[in-house]
Amino acid sequence: MRKYDVTGIGNALVDIEFMVNDQFFIDHQVEKGVMTLVDEERQNTLMQVINTEEAKKQCGGSAANSVIAVSQFGGKSYYCCKVANDELGKFFVEDMKESGVDNNLDPERLEDGITGKCLVMVTDDSERTMNTFLGITQNFSTKEINEAAIKDSKFLFIEGYLVTSPNGKEAMIQAKKIAEEAGTKVALTFSDPAMVKYFKEAFDDIIGPSVDLLFANEEEAMLYTGKDTLEEAREEMKKAAKHFVITQGKNGALIFDGDTFIDIEPYKTNAIDSNGAGDMFAGAFLYGITNGHSYASSGKLASMASSKIVSQFGPRLKWPQAKEILNRLNP
């Protein structure tokens, strides 16, 4: 019996989420709808023109959101990451503790530096635009990998955003090697179309012969495979992963369980904020398949959870909401 359902590795960020209109992007030369890495000076310039008192703040990063989701549904998760010995770093440590996620962070031994921040700009069309300053997490390396936690997990979950730095890529490859040698299954998320567009060869190195489970949205799947249609992309994806999930936004999701394709129906919702929808889908799905649910049932759970996420602000459910979703799945 393994201690953890999922151990995740990823960029630890404090998400600062706020509403903007399209004119904001024009005025401040921000590319809408994508995640853009920025330096500290650029991020501080943007922070000076937002109302930080009304902004929502919580620990985040793609993999962090997913392992927190595992915990909220009743699973056991661990997170390998890096934050600094500053106010936001201490906030991150405390927020992870309150979320029930074990981690490698010792609040008494954090390094000096600046904790990474992600400005999440949400517009009325529910689209999210992110400007991210990685701070100390850009130094995430093999030193932050907890080998024992990976070996004691059913799944290792690797965040695609780590691919942007040589040390991050090295950590991804080493963590995957540790998992494979221990019989721990490996899941990878592409995280963002820009990651696939600019780092495809690096992803090829990380994936190697294959991974056990791959998460992608439609755009990422077609970018990675070089195909023009979802039908072609899904066939090509079989070469990279034994199982995979392709999320399709308002159209639900497509799952390959190793033998057949499963269509997951969307749940009707009033979308106001898409931030974290993919992270929630991955976390809920991983919870499902590590806790006795079939791929179809796990997909249904993930679809319910992500539809709930887009109907509210922020990438995280409240504990009663997670319980309610589980009760709907298992009436």
Write structural notes for this entry:
- With 331 residues, this protein is α/β, with parallel strands linked by helices.
- The protein has a domain at 4-10 and 62-91 and 138-329: Ribokinase (UDP-N-acetylmuramoyl-L-alanine:D-glutamate ligase), CATH 3.40.1190.
- The chain contains 12 helices and 14 strands.
- It has helices at 22-28, 40-47, 62-72, 87-98, 147-151, 166-182, 193-207, 218-225, 230-237, 277-289, 295-309, 319-329; strands at 4-9, 13-19, 35-37, 56-60, 77-80, 102-103, 116-122, 128-133, 153-159, 185-189, 211-217, 241-247, 253-256, 261-264.
- The protein has a 9-stranded mixed beta sheet, sandwiched between helices. Strands 3-8-7-2-4 form a 5-stranded mixed beta sheet.
- Helix 6 packs across helix 7, helix 8 crosses helix 9 (230-237) and helix 11 (295-309) packs antiparallel against helix 12.
- The longest helix has 17 residues, at 166-182.
- It is globular, with a radius of gyration of 18 Å.
- 51% of the residues are buried.
- Belongs to the carbohydrate kinase PfkB family.
- This is Sugar/nucleoside kinase (Ribokinase family).
- One of its GO terms (molecular function) is kinase activity.
Give the topology.
Elements: E1 4-9, E2 13-19, H1 22-28, E3 35-37, H2 40-47, E4 56-60, H3 62-72, E5 77-80, H4 87-98, E6 102-103, E7 116-122, E8 128-133, H5 147-151, E9 153-159, H6 166-182, E10 185-189, H7 193-207, E11 211-217, H8 218-225, H9 230-237, E12 241-247, E13 253-256, E14 261-264, H10 277-289, H11 295-309, H12 319-329
Parallel strand pairs: 1-5, 1-9, 2-7, 3-8, 5-6, 9-10, 10-11, 11-12
Antiparallel strand pairs: 2-4, 7-8, 12-13, 13-14
Keywords: Kinase, Transferase
GO molecular function: kinase activity
Domain Carbohydrate kinase PfkB: 49-321
